[in-house]
Specification:
516 residues; mainly alpha; two-stranded antiparallel ribbon
Length: 516
């Protein structure tokens, strides 16, 4: 079998994945300059090229991996794993590592070097995770993996874009409806054009047409385009400069959970891909993921790369291997020639973000569809921590715009909003979602002993701070690690485990009496 490198569905897949990558790149440019004090030449000449080379290498591998699976299975409907910048790590590294260092020292170079250290350390963790990922995947219920993924999809991916769509309805709603109609109803559009391409053309035409008649609903963002060539350059010296410096190791409290977050997230995305029909080997998939992150750091990027959420969405669009290849090359060309600002000047994001809304919705639907029906309650429970984390983001953003901090007003919420419960659920929310959903699967199945194991895992993770551990400081919410980091949760989960063990013993006694 000789599968094609490119099919029509790859056009839609490319637009969705490219817009996602483009949003991350634009966010990187904005935050690195505004929060971390990076000069523009550092962002354009080091950070973006480092990210681009890692994105290209990862996309090349995952496209090859998809073709390999096509040949092995004799199928031509295999979809490559999506790959790009990890958004939660991007936010965490900006606001919890590089931003604080820049504010404290005023030294943007030092903040950048600390980001390089954090990115490389995360890559090392992800690489190590490749050798234990299969074991984790075999011993975790599918509902636990998919529910945490669905929580991220419906909150951090979909809802932000929903608000953006309804904030600019004249430009955004029609393209979004075109995408939903084309993909949900599988309607063939005129001339067989892909829904994503039609949405882009219609949205861009609306934006510029309304602007021409005196309704400037679309305002090009970013600076004016300046032609330049920005090749990736190794920055090994800057990376090594913090290996012997306590400054880099001081932020392991951020690096460790984010590295674990990336490993678990990648496992969940592999499980999501398998649920959609494409089973990829865990070790090579995670290994390239970790190597890509380390390559990014070696060439100047301060942000880890990861297997993206969204494989079922791209598969539903008809994307195969080609969308990954094209995305990698287009991202590199844009970065090498400073073209991100040019894209911002021409295409409104509202014209195409409906694709990302579709991706978030279909992943959430999959979490309920691809599991045994009784496990739906476990998926519902697994959504709660992501909802809490997203709520906290809204609260902190609101307070920041109002010139206040959570530290100042936390006690004012009282019983109207149990803010400390929101924060506790936010800390390690991905782990919390997975553990609670796994417990519920085994409770539903009345396998109380297995449920007790997950309850003990929750107790242990809470006691060391990987779940629920935090302290509220003037600098913001800081994760708390160490022995007895969240003792109340640790004790509660341990008592739950004891109850489940007792129920298991009672079930054994009842079974023995029935045999008599």
């Amino acid at each position: 079998m000789k599968p094609r490198w490119f099919v029509r569905g790859d056009i839609d897949g490319f637009f969705g994945l490219f817009i996602d990558n483009l949003v991350q790149l634009v966010l990187m440019v904005t935050l690195c300059q505004a929060v971390c004090g990076f000069p523009r030449e550092l962002v354009l000449g080091r950070v973006l090229p480092g990210a681009a080379i890692s994105i290209l290498l990862g996309n090349l591998f995952y496209a090859w991996q998809a073709r390999k699976l096509m040949v092995e299975t004799g199928r031509d409907d295999v979809t490559a794993l999506p790959y790009g910048i990890n958004t939660p790590s991007l936010i965490a590294y900006v606001f919890l590592i590089m931003g604080p260092i820049y504010r404290a020292t005023g030294n943007a170079t030092l903040a950048w070097q600390a980001g390089l250290f954090a990115c490389f350390a995360s890559g090392v963790m992800e690489t190590a995770g490749a050798f234990v990922g299969d074991w984790i995947r075999r011993h975790t219920p599918r509902a636990a993996l998919l529910s945490a993924l669905a929580g991220i999809a419906i909150t951090f991916i979909s809802m932000g874009f929903v608000f953006q769509i309804f904030a600019n309805p004249a430009i955004a709603i029609l393209p979004t409806m075109i995408i939903l109609i084309a993909y949900a109803a599988r309607v063939r559009l005129p001339f067989g054009l892909p829904g994503g391409l039609v949405a882009l053309i219609v949205g861009t035409g609306l934006a510029w047409g309304l602007r021409a008649v005196g309704m400037p609903l679309f305002a090009p963002t970013g600076g004016e385009y300046e032609f330049g060539v920005y090749f990736p350059i190794p920055v090994i010296g800057d990376l090594l400069s913090l290996l012997a410096d306590p400054l880099g190791w001081r932020y392991m409290a951020v690096i460790l959970p984010m590295g674990l977050f990336n490993i678990i997230g990648s496992l969940q995305n592999l499980e999501s891909a398998e649920a959609a029909g494409d089973r990829y080997e865990t070790r090579p998939s995670l290994l390239v993921n970790g190597i890509g992150t380390m390559v990014a750091a070696l060439f100047g990027s301060v942000f880890p790369t990861t297997i993206y959420i969204g494989h079922p969405g791209w598969k539903a669009l008809g994307a195969r291997a080609g969308y990954s290849l094209v995305n990698g090359f287009v991202v590199v060309l844009l970065v090498l020639f400073g073209g991100i600002a040019l894209v911002e000047q021409v295409v409104p994001l509202e014209a195409v973000i409906g694709i990302l809304l579709w991706i978030g919705v279909i992943i959430t639907a999959q979490a309920f569809q691809e599991i045994p029906k009784p496990h739906a309650i476990a998926v519902a429970v697994g959504l709660v921590p992501s909802l809490a984390s997203w709520a906290l983001l809204l609260i902190e953003t609101t307070l920041s715009k109002a010139g206040a901090t959570l530290y100042e007003v936390a006690d004012s919420f009282g019983g109207e909003l149990y803010i400390h419960g929101v924060i506790a659920l936010d800390r390690g929310f991905l782990l919390t979602a997975m553990v609670l959903a796994a417990m519920m699967v085994y409770i539903v199945e009345r396998e109380f002993r297995r449920a007790a194991v997950w309850a003990l895992a929750a107790a242990g993770l809470s006691m060391v701070g990987l779940m629920h551990g935090y302290q509220l400081t003037e600098a913001g919410i800081m994760s708390k690690f160490g022995l007895a980091a969240a003792p109340g949760f640790g004790i509660a989960y341990a008592l739950t485990a004891a109850l489940l063990v007792a129920l298991h013993g009672r079930a054994l006694e009842a079974a023995a009496r029935a045999d008599l």
